[in-house]
Amino acid sequence: MRVGIIGAGQLGRMLALAGYRLGIRSLFLDPDADSSGGQVGPVLVGAIDDATRIRELAAQVDAVTFDIENVPVETLEAASSTTPICPPPAALAVAQDRLSEKQLFEAIGIATAPYVVVTRTDDLAAVGTQLGWPIVLKARRLGYDGRGQRLVRTASELELAWRDLGSVPAIAEAWIEFEREVSLIAVRGADGSAAFYALAENVHDDGILHSTSAPYADDDLQREAEGYLDAILQRFDYCGVLTVEFFVADGRLIANEIAPRVHNSGHWTIEGAETSQFENHLRAILGLPLGSTKAVGHAYMINLLGDISDRQKLLSIPGLHLHDYGKSPRPLRKLGHCTLVGSDKATVLESAAALRTVISRS
User: Fold this and answer.
1) Distance between terminal CA atoms of the chain?
2) For residue 182, which of 244, 262, 272 has the smallest C-alpha distance?
3) What is residue 320's three-state secondary structure?
4) What pLDDT score does 155 carry?
5) CB 287 within 8 A of CB 269
6) What 3-state DSSP class applies to 360?
7) How far apart are CA 134 and CA 39, in angstroms?
8) Torsions phi, psi of 61, nearest 5?
9) How confident is the model at residue 8 (pLDDT cuts 50, 70, 90)?
10) Is the pLDDT assigned to residue 146 strictly greater than 70?
């Protein structure tokens, strides 16, 4: 079996690595033959929005997926006439537009932050009146890892912030005083069967995921989140992995955004679950039975940004798993991650504190 992956970043790399064990070969489409994914699998060199290249990719594989969200939906839909595209392009279209995300949450009955649509300068006047301050101004498209958004505290800052974003269509969101951020990862197979991982608690820094701890044990929130994701899966007749990030405020979930793909907050599942999100994504899109999503203890994952710390010190930490994405150093670039797994949560978090010290001193 062979899967085509549009984008050969670290997510594509981990998909390919998960496939090797099952005898699943991967073929990437990426502009860079020496990309992170290209170091572990062949690359069809080309732009990810090149319709001709995407059709070439689709013709050589059993299913096509993606590790990046800015793939033209129309191009994917055209390729789907010959080869399954998973997750469905309709779900990707929603994730590409923050307003569409909000409308999806509202249609399903999932709480989300109050917002105002901003398409022209005149729309800015209503923001403070309707939402109060501060607000988060977000470009509707092409925003991730903190890009395309600004925290705005006063009306005088708002127009400047919108201009700084390029005066593009945007939404202004009310600031949520949350207790924590969590995410849930679900997977749905071609036969309609679905499985859910444990809730994970996430810590962000300047919009970039810093660390994840899982499971986040709250049975009520777990059931609530599973119900929400199941509704989204059903709505799109979904196939593959889906992630939704939530704020927890006053004991309830407030949806922040969706990701129709494998996700950074699920890296802990490689060592911390019986079947990783990457393997289950491949199983789903290729029509194979889903694997167990059960956690195998407690896991802590931390991203390595900008550079990878002293390997000697990192690998001297008992139980640590190091993942190097094969990228060149660059400020704030995700170069790898480390995961700690153990049966005792307190011991794992103690090791995590030592890990953070090593990283901060590098």
Assistant:
1) 42
2) 244
3) strand
4) 87
5) no
6) helix
7) 44
8) -135, 170
9) very high
10) no
For residue 204, what are its two tokens? 């962000």
Identify the helix (H) or strand (E) that includes residue 246: strand 240-249
Please report the pLDDT score of residue 298 as a whole number. 96
Q: What is this structure's pTM?
A: 0.94
Compute, in degrees rounded to 10, the torsion defined by CA atoms 282, 285, 289, 292: 50
Helix (H) or strand (E) holding 63: strand 63-66
Do 300 and 215 meet the contact criterion of CB atoms below 8 Å apart? no
Let me know if 220 is exposed, middle or buried by CB neighbors in 10 A (0-12, 13-18, 19+).
exposed
Burial of 59 (0-12, 13-18, 19+ CB in 10 A): exposed
Looking at the chain, the whole-number percentage of residues with pLDDT higher than 90 is: 76
Given a contact cutoff of 8 angstroms between Cβ atoms, the answer to whether 168 and 141 are in contact is: yes
Residue 38 has pLDDT above 90, yes or no: yes
d(CA 309, CA 80) in angstroms, rounded, equals 43
How far apart are alpha carbons 196 and 199 in whole angstroms?
9
Burial code of 285-307, b = ≥16 C-beta within 10 A, e = fewer? Answer: bbebebbebebebbbbbbbbbee
Say how many residues make up the chain. 362
Joined together, the tokens standing for residue 56 give 């070439």
What's the CA gap between 120 and 283, in Å, rounded?
Answer: 45
| Identity at 324, one-letter amino acid code | D
Distances in Å between the Cα of 348 and the Cα atoms of 165, 321, 355 are 41, 13, 10
Q: What is the pLDDT of residue 307?
A: 85
Residue given tokens 């309830």 in the structure block: 252
CB 143 within 8 A of CB 96: no
Show the domains of the chain with their CATH numbers.
Answer: 2-85 (3.40.50.20), 114-174 (3.30.1490.20), 180-360 (3.30.470.20)
Is the pLDDT at 145 greater than 70? The verdict is no
Tokens standing for residue 197: 């991982």
| The token pair that represents 263 in the structure block | 């996700």
